[in-house]
Specification:
By secondary structure, this protein is an alpha+beta fold. Helices cover 28% and strands 37% of the residues. The protein has a domain of 78 residues. The protein is built from four helices and five strands, in the order βαββββααα. GO terms for molecular function: ubiquitin-like modifier activating enzyme activity. It comes from Cochlearius cochlearius (Boat-billed heron).
Length: 116
């Protein structure tokens, strides 16, 4: 489900219905130069390709590059990952008065607070 130009209450209500029925939910809007986008994909599984790191044997090489890890681009492994997305109601209900919240506020886009 994709929503735009909806009130906050409508977005929260439809997201709760989608989350309950395992339906992916996206919402967003743009206000001049500012905009937002929110996605609740429920439980999302995906596969990520990782490049294997070759271990350097001690004493084989000398010089400044000996401490760097070597990436072998010819060998990769597939790693299965799982992400659990939160609902819109939870994302909007963050308490910003604690110490952890002060640190997180520095990493949070100002547009989040405009949406509030």
């Amino acid at each position: 489900v994709c929503l735009t130009c909806c009130s906050r209450d409508v977005m929260v209500k439809i997201n709760q219905i989608c989350h309950k029925n395992s339906v992916k939910f996206f919402t967003g809007d743009v206000f001049g130069y500012h905009g937002y986008m929110f996605a609740d994909l429920g439980e999302h599984e995906f596969v990520e390709e990782k490049t294997k790191v070759a271990k350097v044997s001690p004493g084989v090489e000398d010089g400044p590059d000996t401490k760097k890890t070597k990436l072998d681009s010819s060998e990769t492994t597939m790693v299965k990952k799982r992400v659990v997305f939160c609902q819109l109601k939870e994302a909007l209900a963050v308490d910003w008065s604690g110490e952890k919240a002060k640190a997180a506020s520095k990493r949070t886009a100002p547009d989040y607070f405009l949406l509030q």
